[in-house]
Amino acid sequence: MRFRHVPWLDIWAVVTTGLLLIAVAFPQQWTGTLMSARMHFAPAGRAFAQTPETPARLEWLGWQFFRLTSPGGKIILFNPSLNDPKAVFVNRESPLNLEQIDRVDLILISSGHADDQGMAAEISQKTGAPIITTFELANWLVVKGVASDKILRGEPGSRFDVGGIKVQVVNSVHGSGAPTLPGSLPSAVYGGPALGFIVTLETGLKIYHAGSTALTQDLKLYAQLYKPHVALLPIASGLMPDEAALAAEFLLTDNP
């Protein structure tokens, strides 16, 4: 993995947002999780053909952008910020621009912030992929040209089933202002509550994307109730490294 010279805070975010904190903080538990979950972690690249026997594939594509390919071949994007000059937030660590996105089955947006919503609107318009996000941000996405029937409106506590991919929406301790056009007033619109997502694949594998959350006791509840196998935590976006290590510990509460 190569890194450009960027300010120190960005380095923390680029280096560590993509780490799977449970694996880093608790390698002994990680071995068992990896074997039972049948999950393949890979550098960025084109999505691979999948079969029901194929392990799930997870790619870190810079910042908080992950692409998850399920055993059944469903492609799920989390916070799809692209390395595209037309983006409000340009994810310079991503190998992908909008032209390179050709098929998507589901998009998850954790907040209205430019780095979280990324180019979700443009990707949905191009591929027809549905978006799961808040009621408030849904209205903003419609203004940006997303078809209203392509948005699944939710809030913490909502549950969705999209083609066999189950999504539990949970709370995230973060803001959610969506940027407006340059020079416009107000400079941001309210995007509703910030979200996290627990995605259950066809095989029962559960992946928790925490959005940009700060440290919260809610993580213990998610571990007890939903028992995710894999956690994606936002170091330097919402958590400092010491807090992220504690967050990983929280996520093992009653979650063997």
Automatic annotation (TrEMBL):
Pfam families reported in the protein's UniProt record: Lactamase_B_2 (PF12706)
InterPro entries, per database record: Metallo-B-lactamas, RibonucZ/Hydroxyglut_hydro, UPF0173_UPF0282_UlaG_hydrolase
Domain Metallo-beta-lactamase, first and last residues per copy: 76-236
Signal sequence range: none
Domain of life: Bacteria
Gene3D superfamilies: Ribonuclease Z/Hydroxyacylglutathione hydrolase-like (3.60.15.10)
Protein name: Metallo-beta-lactamase domain-containing protein
Organism phylogeny: Bacteria, Bacillati, Candidatus Sysuimicrobiota, Candidatus Sysuimicrobiia, Candidatus Sysuimicrobiales
